[in-house]
Amino acid sequence: MCDNTNDNIVENNVVEDNPKNIEDEIKKLSDGINEIKEEFESKVKYDKHKDKIIDELHAELQQYKDDLIHKLIRPIITDIIYTIDNNNKTIEAFRKKETKELDADKLLQVVEGLSEDLEDILYRQGVEEFTYVVPEFDPKRQKIAKTVETEDKERDRTVAKSVKKGYMLGDRVIRHELVEVYVYKE
Prior knowledge:
This protein has 186 residues and is an alpha+beta fold. The protein has two helices and six strands, in the order ααββββββ.
């Protein structure tokens, strides 16, 4: 009998404590949910602020990039415009002359002068022309435009002739020199 009484007391205590424990647990869960909700809202606000800052920095960086490109390209464009203006003045002067008065040598000098003006523009921008005098073909700086057969074995893979100049900016090749290269053939 004693055992049965203890069981009733234990059951009664559990039943009586159970609603109170449930209310406490619900309160703890509710408090935890509210805390998580507050942290989540704070994180969302932080992320929105961070996204806004990133967008502003990206826009500012894009503006700097655009300004930098403009500053880099402007001198080249100005030089090209100046060259066009000079060329147009020359054309206008030639048009005023009669065909009999036009001199082929003079026209040739004008065309050569235009090429020189354009080379000057490149030089002012740090671009340098090159033509290698080394007899061996250099694939890092030269491209083969044409091959020329030779019976002389020592001339194999040597430059026969430079066709077009190469151009470099600093230590980088912008355009390879175009060359004709000897190819040994028995």
